[in-house]
């Protein structure tokens, strides 16, 4: 049984796709894309040398272009905050007097225990305060 070259390139692409899924290394995906391109050139009747050249050029080009972009995105912090990180810097309404020893605020639709950042500050009910940080289950406000 004689198998065409393009089928071998497809088998190679699938073979390179398996480690991509198992190891999450994007380089394998770029090599698999190169093998798909080589499969296309084999189906068009290009000689083996041309197929290997297309495989190499496409794979190297994808690595050269995609990898720096992926590294840049990986090193950036997420643009959104979640959990208690999302509460820092938000404005809250004082429900019960807040001083250095405690109090209650309404923050993001929920009632939180709160305390002031410095010892001398006191905020009465109805006042707007800013959340500086979350310390356990207590919002620290100014």
Please tell me about this protein's structure.
With 142 residues, the protein is of the alpha+beta class. 46% of the residues lie in helices and 24% in strands. It is built from three helices and five strands, in the order αααβββββ. The chain has helices at 5-23, 26-43, 48-75, and strands spanning 91-99, 102-107, 110-116, 128-135, 138-141. A five-stranded mixed beta barrel has the order 1-2-3-5-4. Strand 2 and strand 3 form a beta hairpin. Helix 1 (5-23) runs antiparallel to helix 2 (26-43). It is rod-shaped. It starts with a helix and ends with a strand.
Briefly, what is this?
Helix content is 46%, strand content 24%.
Q: What is Rg?
A: 29 Å
Secondary structure tally, helices: 3
Structural class: alpha+beta
The percent range for strand residues is 15-25%
List segments where confidence is low: pLDDT < 50 over at least 5 consecutive residues: none
- Binned, the helix content reads 40-55%
Strand order of the largest sheet: 1-2-3-5-4
Overall, the morphology is rod-shaped
The beta-strand count equals 5
The biggest sheet amounts to: 5 strands, mixed, barrel
Q: N-to-C terminal Cα separation, in Å?
A: 79 Å
Mean pLDDT: 91
Order of helices and strands: HHHEEEEE
């Amino acid at each position: 049984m004689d198998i065409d070259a393009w089928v071998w390139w497809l088998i190679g692409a699938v073979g390179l796709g398996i480690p991509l899924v198992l190891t999450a290394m994007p380089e394998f995906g770029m090599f698999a894309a190169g093998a798909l391109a080589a499969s296309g050139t084999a189906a068009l009747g290009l000689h083996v040398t041309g197929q290997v050249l297309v495989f190499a050029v496409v794979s190297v080009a994808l690595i050269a272009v995609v990898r720096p972009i992926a590294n840049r995105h990986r090193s950036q912090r997420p643009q959104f905050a979640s959990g208690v990180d999302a509460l820092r810097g938000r404005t809250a309404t004082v429900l019960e007097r807040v001083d250095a020893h405690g109090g209650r605020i309404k923050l993001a639709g929920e009632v939180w225990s709160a305390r002031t950042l410095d010892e001398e500050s006191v905020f009465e009910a109805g006042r707007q305060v800013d959340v500086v940080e979350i310390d356990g289950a207590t919002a620290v406000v100014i």
